[in-house]
Write a structure and sequence with these properties.
globular
Length: 337
């Protein structure tokens, strides 16, 4: 029998509760959706900048000299609307992504326990939590790819050859006539069929599987270390439910940084693939870009630097964004156990 939890042996079983029931599933979906929506509103201008920087790695002449130049020129020529171009798709995507992530993550933890005949309160190892995170990321990638495809296509609309020059003085007026997310989605289906919605799936799968493992494992590790430290200092027994808001935020911030640094090249390849039709049209008879082909072309064009295009601003936005996600998710779990 396991020893009762003390300051150094917490009854800690990962993010959220572990009971497997319909009510828990509804809470995971609801809380994950709320956290994802809030974080996406905060981070979207930075994500747009990242995608625009990534989309130019195969161009002979760069449109932007860096993230600040991209942000400033977008603001000057497109205004606040330009900074939030394509927001509806990622809002839906963030809600679906985080709902799927947290639901899958908790259910995979329960699967580990059932497989080993362990109670729902059993402490999983960090490697089991990382595997649960990887599985959750893999499941979520299939939900996320179509949403990110639409988002990326909308984020480079003002950079297409049809715009004649990059950011003309009348671009703000022209932007009102650009197709919205439904039109972009319909265009993809019309031109490539439903299968075309999963262009870049391999890159998304790699990013979400590796990133999910890193994201959840890092958050859990940092979170438990912070709780253990407080338990030792106070001499009071503490469990997962006792995590403080600032501890959730710090652990989430660390997780956000680790996620992006560990799998960023896959994200770059995905963005290049998903924006190639708009920025470097191949023609109808030419096959769609492949993951390996795009990876080779990107590396050949700019080396490691090209694979990490936009990484700085992505890390800058993902750290507070990830902190916000776990702050909200843990906070909702704390107030609605």
């Amino acid at each position: 029998m396991d020893a009762p939890p003390g300051p150094d042996t917490l009854a800690w079983d990962g993010v959220g509760a572990t009971s497997s029931n319909p009510f828990r599933a509804v809470k995971d979906i609801t809380f994950g959706s709320i956290a994802g929506m809030a974080s996406k509103i905060f981070e979207h201008p930075f994500d747009l900048t990242k995608v625009r920087l990534q989309s130019q790695v195969l161009d002979s002449t760069a449109r932007f000299s860096g993230p600040i130049d991209c942000l400033v020129r977008t603001w000057q020529n497109e205004g606040i609307r330009g900074l939030y171009r394509g927001l509806p798709a990622p809002i839906v995507g963030a809600m679906a992504e985080n709902a799927s992530l947290f639901l899958s993550y908790n259910e995979l933890q329960n699967l580990f326990r059932r497989f080993n005949g362990q109670p729902s309160s059993y402490d999983l190892t960090l490697s089991q939590l990382a595997l649960s995170g990887a599985g959750a990321g893999a499941v979520t990638s299939f939900v996320l790819t179509p949403v990110e495809l639409v988002k990326c296509k909308m984020q480079v609309q003002m950079l297409t050859p049809e715009a004649s020059v990059v950011f003309p003085s009348s671009s703000t007026m022209k932007s009102s006539s650009l197709p919205g997310p439904i039109s972009v989605l319909a265009s993809v289906i019309r031109n490539t069929g439903f299968r075309g919605l999963w262009l870049g799936q391999t890159a998304t799968l790699i990013r979400e599987t590796g990133g999910g493992a890193a994201w959840f494992a890092c958050k859990e590790l940092v979170g438990i270390k912070l709780i253990q430290r407080r338990a030792r200092l106070s001499g009071v027994e503490m469990g997962r439910k006792d995590i403080l808001p600032w501890e959730s935020a710090v652990a989430g911030a660390c997780a956000g940084a680790v996620f992006n640094v560990s799998v960023f090249p896959a994200d770059t390849i995905k963005s290049v693939m998903q924006t190639e039709e708009e920025l470097r049209p191949r023609g109808k008879s030419v096959p769609a870009p492949t993951f390996l082909g795009t990876a080779r072309a990107t590396y050949k064009a700019q080396g490691i630097r090209g694979l990490y295009a936009g990484c700085g601003i992505t890390a800058a936005r993902s750290i507070p964004s990830s902190a916000l996600i776990f702050l909200i998710y843990d906070g909702l779990n704390r107030h609605f156990p």
